[in-house]
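**User:**
My hope is that you can spare some time for a protein that puzzles me. This is the protein in question:
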Amino acid sequence: MRLSIIAYFADFYFAGFAILVLVAAGIVPAIAAGHSTAIAVWVAAAAAGVMAWSLAEYWVHRYFYHEVPGLRELHGHHHAEPEAFIGGPPVLAILIIFALAYLPLVFVSSIVAGGFTTGALTGYMAYMLVHHAVHYWKPAPGTLLFTLRRHHALHHHHSEEGNFGIITSFWDRVFGTEILPAGKPKKRHAPT
């Protein structure tokens, strides 16, 4: 769906606010009380949340946006007009992250739920920022953002489907969907 500029950027603000609330409710009290175990658990859960987000981002992009009717057409509009403000309804992804990450984990531990959800939301914010930047900014060659921009440009402009990761090409390499620039051979694994 075509979004207004306010709706397009709304998730940047709402996700950032949600992260601040989770940090204030979870890690700040643990730090103030000197609970080193709770801090370590929260940080580990946050790291797991970032990794889980990157895998979810890959799968949602690969399957939902390229295979599911309705979403495939919406995403097709983004491919046709990559600089247009096209996306899902504001805040929907944040609500889904809370429903899939926070709600089930809060019954295990509020520290784990808060850390994991903070990590997932941080990954989501990184995705939004990188995806926006690769379409609107002109990064300098040799920078990480330039590499990510080239990776995503191949997704948009190559005849084969691939390069579904936005914040990382890791999962494309793992699942064999990486498209490399012309002249760069794919690395082959030695037979075992």
